[in-house]
Specification:
2 copies of one chain form a homodimer. The first copy, chain A, is of the alpha+beta class. Chain A folds into 3 domains: 85 residues, 3-Layer(aba) Sandwich (Rossmann fold); 61 residues, 2-Layer Sandwich (Dna Ligase, domain 1); 167 residues, D-amino Acid Aminotransferase, Chain A, domain 1 (2-Layer Sandwich), CATH 3.30.470. Chain A is 27% helix and 29% strand. Chain A is built from 10 helices and 17 strands. In chain A, the strands form 3 sheets. In chain A, strands 9, 10, 11, 12, 13, 14, 15, 16 and 17 form a 9-stranded antiparallel beta sheet that branches. In chain A, α4 packs across α5. The longest helix of chain A is centred in the middle third of the chain and has 18 residues. At the A-B interface, α1, β16 and β17 of A face α1, β16 and β17 of B. Chains A, B: It catalyses: 5-amino-1-(5-phospho-beta-D-ribosyl)imidazole + hydrogencarbonate + ATP = 5-carboxyamino-1-(5-phospho-D-ribosyl)imidazole + ADP + phosphate + 2 H(+).
């Protein structure tokens, strides 16, 4: 049974994902209270209430939690102490286990492999000896990544040949890391899937992703994969959601390889590669997430159009006047004043009617 | 050239139309400042800023106008004194003439007939003698309406036979009125059309409306009309927009009769019968309106799905738990706490892929 109109969803983080979550909540008659350390975050324009305070401010966190019915988040990098305090007052959805796993590549890969899901070959690396042993096992090229966090290609170093090892290790700045073997993949796809509190699952059609300089550039739906692979991808996502007792939307990035699907990473939140759902589905990923965390039934994520999402990074936003004139193009800007290099300023969804051979769903 | 991110649109009125305008503005990176006499209006949940003050508060109006770049409105019933004050400080879009005409049925019908557009036969009625003469000319059944305002069937009285005349006149409570002849129409359709500051025009596919108890019940797109009538309807709307030098979105209600299209009424704002555009077009009526008033190029209003909009009036909102489970159904609630009879609480858009014989509009 949906909560009454006027119930409030607390959102940790006030970036563009929080902004679009707040808009989705408004469609369901729900209010949002955004908690964000930085002043004037993108979500503040459309949230009912905003708290500007650091994650170390116990009083602000307690007042925030007391003012809402349930708490969710738009990014993974939230201090444990803040989560502990909030969880003592209100439910946090998705749950702490999902967050802990997604914050730590070692936990994530161990969890995924434990569920029988393939990942790139990997080894934990704490020092030069570990790295030498890992390279001996995995070979080159490989990629060294810090174990914790990492977002849009930060905290990563490629090792094309053994002599790159020292520089790569230095780039980790002493943080624990994991060495991953390169995957010979033909495509990267992602599945945006949701699980409700009662265990029901809904998944969007997989999208095909192209990155540029480590940042998502486009997501295209439908992905150019076989119906079998499409089902496999959704089943992988469902297995992860069920194993975690997850509530909310998750983004699951997958590599398509000759040997089948390999899980690249999971994000316990709405995901950039799911922005296309805003203009091609009756219920988009943002509303689906709000539905799940608020205890509504999950909505219909069937796709009724073909679509390509294009991110507007930094100065790409200068293209808006031209994009605004394009047929079939929906614009989504985040209200950020300054277009710094690498900063996600907005995105567009280029929509086309379903192709005849592209089945609904 | 679109205004910079962070520009602010002032919106007079904080109801559901203001709420959905604020959400649309956020997609374009624009902020909204809502002016509304009542506390906690629906638009407050998603507006960047809200002023709660009566339309007679000159100081509040001036501060509001000074804080925004351009002013628009979500309803027609705004006191002239407030508009005069605001217009001395900031542009009002759509313009005052459109507002004056839509506020007064006599002005509206005179304007429409002057443009060569058909209306129902009508006579101005100020007293019993006028009404007797009008009934002699127009006959019964007919409908007596107050000249000014009137919304969702208020201020109207049917005259089925001459002996109903006295009661109908009494229902006008001494206000000037207009007697309209009944129209023998097969369908009511409406066109949602927009005009930009440079004179460009964009129209959505006409929708077919069903009313219940004087309140819009459903809008269905495509309307069951011939391609010729579809073009005619769009041309009628374009003529009105051009004649008024209009900037923004307008709703034009039309009757389909054996003799052609008859204009029922015009609304100088986003319109309930255009809510379907939220889930079937890349750019919906709310964004189209914001684009026009903010000086952006108009967007693509092509329809890429068939859709039926169903209003949720009063207790209809109790159906939400069931509607939330429906395939292809998008829910839009307005955040109103109390479901009074006749109150618009929300709407749903039921979306289906385009029918094969339904051309992209």
């Amino acid at each position: 049974m949906p909560p009454a109109t006027g119930a409030t969803i607390g959102i940790l983080g006030g970036g563009q994902l929080g902004r679009m979550l707040a808009v989705a909540a408004s469609r369901l008659g729900l209010r949002t209270h955004v908690y964000e350390p930085a002043a004037n975050p993108p979500a503040a324009d459309v949230a009912h209430r905003v708290t500007t305070a650091p994650y170390e401010d116990a009083q602000a966190l307690a007042a925030f939690a007391a003012s809402v019915d349930v708490v969710t988040y738009e990014f993974e990098n939230i201090p444990t102490s803040a989560l502990d305090l909030i969880e003592s007052l209100r439910p946090i959805r998705p749950n702490r286990r999902a967050l802990a796993i997604s914050q730590d590549r070692l936990l994530e890969k161990t969890f995924l492999n434990g569920e029988g899901l393939a990942t790139a070959p990997w080894c934990a690396v704490e020092d030069a000896a570990d790295l030498e042993a890992a390279l001996a096992r995995i070979g080159t090229p490989a990629i060294l990544k810090t174990t914790r966090l990492g977002y849009d290609g930060k905290g990563q170093a490629r090792i094309m040949a053994p002599e790159d090892a020292a520089d790569a290790l230095a780039a980790m700045a002493g943080q624990p890391a994991v060495l991953e073997g390169f995957i010979d993949f033909s495509r990267e796809i992602s599945v945006i899937a949701a699980r409700g509190p009662g265990g029901e699952i809904a998944a969007y059609d997989p999208g095909e992703n192209i990155h540029k300089a480590g940042i998502l550039h486009t997501t295209t739906v439908p992905a150019h994969i076989s119906p079998n692979l499409r089902s496999d991808a959704v089943l992988v996502a469902a297995r992860i959601l069920n194993a975690l007792g997850y509530v909310g939307v998750m983004g699951v990035e997958l590599f398509v390889t000759p040997g089948g699907l390999i899980v690249n990473e999971i994000a316990p939140r709405v995901h950039n590669s799911g922005h296309w759902t805003q203009n091609a589905c009756a219920v988009d990923q943002f509303e689906q997430h709000i539905r799940a965390v608020a205890g509504w039934p999950l909505g219909d994520g069937s796709r009724f159009a073909d679509v390509q999402m294009l991110n507007l990074i930094g100065d790409d936003v200068l293209r808006v006047p031209e994009l605004a004139r394009e047929a079939g193009t929906a614009i989504h800007l985040y209200g950020k004043a300054e277009a710094r290099a690498g900063r996600k300023m907005g995105h567009v969804n280029r929509v086309k009617p379903l192709r005849a051979n592209s089945a609904r769903g």
